[in-house]
């Protein structure tokens, strides 16, 4: 009987602690935007900075790209149209990380918000992005400004893809600190 009473007390303590943590930090922000990854043309926002050291002679385009690394400074907009309201920039690196059967990227990027309520704030994402999947989930690993102590996830969905240029829709859920760091 003592073991079950002890288990009940421990379970109750964990429940109270979890509820207390949520009560201290219930700030959840959901953001939707579109990232424009422009690889072609004179106004490219993503450029290849490293690639394979060997000449690939096979016919698999995925294997041919393995090891390619791109640096990006992509615009973030409110709608899929590039000329819509600019809300920020996605700055970081992505690399072709799969050798076969799947087109996958390893991404490390920071979404820097440059307008609106969250102007000057940012959050960072690091993770695997299997870009041929309809919806991809990646973790949010931190943030600054209004998103300080952020954690959460983002769901990415390709809106359009043409000649290596892509528009990707992001739905982001952030859990972050409530403290006002503005002054």
UniProtKB/TrEMBL annotation:
Pfam family, one: Dirigent
UniProt signal peptide: 1-23
Coiled-coil region(s): none
Domain of life: Eukaryota
BP GO terms, sorted: phenylpropanoid biosynthetic process
Compartments, record wording: Secreted, Extracellular space, Apoplast
GO cellular component, one term: apoplast
Main location: secreted
InterPro entries named in the record: Allene_oxi_cyc_Dirigent, Dirigent
Keywords: Apoplast, Secreted, Signal
Listed Gene3D superfamilies: Allene oxide cyclase-like
Protein purpose: Dirigent proteins impart stereoselectivity on the phenoxy radical-coupling reaction, yielding optically active lignans from two molecules of coniferyl alcohol in the biosynthesis of lignans, flavonolignans, and alkaloids and thus plays a central role in plant secondary metabolism.
Protein family per UniProt: Belongs to the plant dirigent protein family.
PANTHER family in the cross-refs: NUCLEOPORIN-RELATED
Subunit record text: Homodimer.
Protein's UniProt name: Dirigent protein
Organism per entry: Momordica charantia (Bitter gourd)
């Amino acid at each position: 009987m003592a073991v079950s009473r002890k288990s009940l007390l421990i379970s109750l303590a964990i429940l109270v602690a979890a509820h207390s943590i949520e009560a201290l930090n219930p700030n959840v922000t959901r953001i939707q935007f579109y990232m424009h990854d422009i690889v072609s043309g004179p106004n490219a926002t993503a450029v290849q900075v490293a690639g394979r050291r060997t000449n690939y002679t096979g016919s698999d385009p995925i294997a041919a790209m393995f090891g390619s690394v791109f640096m990006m400074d992509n615009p973030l907009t409110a709608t899929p149209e590039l000329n819509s309201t600019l809300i920020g920039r996605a700055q970081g690196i992505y690399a072709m990380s799969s050798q076969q059967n799947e087109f996958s990227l390893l991404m490390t990027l920071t979404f820097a918000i440059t307008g609106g309520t969250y102007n000057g704030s940012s959050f960072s994402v690091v993770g695997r992005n299997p870009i041929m999947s309809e919806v991809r989930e990646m973790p949010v690993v931190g943030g600054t400004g209004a998103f300080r102590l952020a954690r959460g996830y983002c769901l990415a969905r390709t809106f359009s893809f043409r000649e290596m240029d892509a528009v990707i829709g992001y739905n982001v859920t952030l859990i972050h600190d409530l403290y006002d760091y503005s002054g």
